[in-house]
Amino acid sequence: MSTLIINIKELLQIREPNVIKVSGEEMKTLPSIKNAYLLIQDDTISDFGPMDQCPSLTAEETIDATGKIVMPTWCDSHTHIVYAGNREQEFVDRINGLSYEDIANRGGGIVNSAAKLQNTSEEELYNQSVARVKSVIKLGTGALEIKSGYGLTTEAEMKMLRVIKRIKQEFPIEVKATFLGAHALPKEYKENKEGYVDLIINEMLPQIAKENLANYIDVFCEKGYFSLEDTERIMEAGKKYNLQSKIHVNQFNAFGGIALSVKHNALSVDHLEELNDDDIQALKGSSTMPVALPSCSYFLSIPYSPGRKMIDAGLPLALASDYNPGSTPSGNMNFVVSTACIKMRLTPEEAINAATINGAYAMGISNAYGSITKGKKANLIITKQVPSYNYLPYSFGENLIEKVLINGKAVE
Ligand SMILES: N=CN[C@@H](CCC(=O)O)C(=O)O
Ligand SMILES: [Zn+2]
């Protein structure tokens, strides 16, 4: 099957195959071709260039993209999209004055979602999650990392990871699974955190590894959740099963989790709403991708990650949605990109780089996703007619996506 897209107003994010992430100054540039064509063979980008060099071939399908932007789909490297029910009551409680921390201390928060998930069948959990996955694909997401962490028992964590596996098998988008057993302390372990970390290491991890249910391992490294020592134990245990880490860190407090994650060669450190100069120093020259989650800051009214400062310090930055029922009940990456521009002062070029090639890096897939490169997967967004790509983050809240192609095929 071949598809030829012609008269593209601007083809965005064209990269050589060796570019797997962009950092600092490089993020200011979004290489593009104006008035372009792009050819897809089966599921792969096979050729592209300026219209005046468009080969005279007859493709099985031709799409006229006059006035429209074509770009890679979003790579959302941090989600908790598999969950049961919702936490709309906590949303109202926060409006009425309770903080995220108050709610967690009252037995709400993550353990509230865990109770719901434990009482939901695997089939029902799959059905609820699939509805969200379908909706984010329509919003332009073509690669998705999904975490466990609302199970908090061996059985329920396995249930979540099996649902993620099924999504991986049944959807054409790229899916990576992350084991986040250390998301919160279950009530039964309230006075025995070490016992729960032992359970994660000695029971959950071996079973998950045996069934090959996870690609990465994560810990919520935060005061009141898991300490540096807990995080280090879990990262080291993950390494024994070849699970590289992606760590929730610096959401509410900065206390050395970033340096620890870098020391253990984490693929990414995520959240970073509270970031100090030592954290920035620790990230410099490392292979660990910092990931900001601006929709979470928006929804919880907490500080935005200092993305401007990180990029100005020469660091790379990725943007992800954090789609979850408690802190971010939205997986809309278009909103994430707009919010990063509006609230974190990223330029549109920086924000688009952060949500495509750098997002792909933060989930270990930038060899095949995240840019317009010959041989990469034909996962593409075709926008509606727009004045320029700046208009995409500018016109926040408006759906400017006309068509999404995944593996070369239009999403219905
Ligand atoms: N901070 C930790 N985990 C999720 C929120 C979990 C929840 O509130 O359910 C996050 O990334 O924001
Ligand atoms: Zn998260």
Automatic annotation (TrEMBL):
Classification via InterPro entries: Amidohydro-rel, HutI, Metal-dep_hydrolase_composite, Metal_Hydrolase
Q: Which CDD domains match?
A: Imidazolone-5PH
What does UniProt give as GO cellular component?
A: cytoplasm
Give the pathway listed in the UniProt entry for this protein.
Answer: Amino-acid degradation; L-histidine degradation into L-glutamate; N-formimidoyl-L-glutamate from L-histidine: step 3/3
**Keywords from the UniProt entry:** Cytoplasm, Histidine metabolism, Hydrolase, Iron, Metal-binding, Zinc
Amino-acid positions noted as binding Zn(2+) in the UniProt annotation, renumbered to this chain:
78, 80, 248, 322
Record-linked SUPFAM superfamilies: Composite domain of metallo-dependent hydrolases (SSF51338), Metallo-dependent hydrolases (SSF51556)
Enzyme Commission number: 3.5.2.7
Q: Which residues form the Amidohydrolase-related domain?
A: 69-411
UniProt-recorded Gene Ontology molecular function terms: imidazolonepropionase activity; iron ion binding; zinc ion binding
Catalysed reaction(s) here are:
4-imidazolone-5-propanoate + H2O = N-formimidoyl-L-glutamate
In terms of domain of life, where is this protein from?
Answer: Bacteria
Q: Which family does it belong to?
A: Belongs to the metallo-dependent hydrolases superfamily. HutI family.
The protein depicted here goes by the name: Imidazolonepropionase
- Biological source species: Bizionia paragorgiae
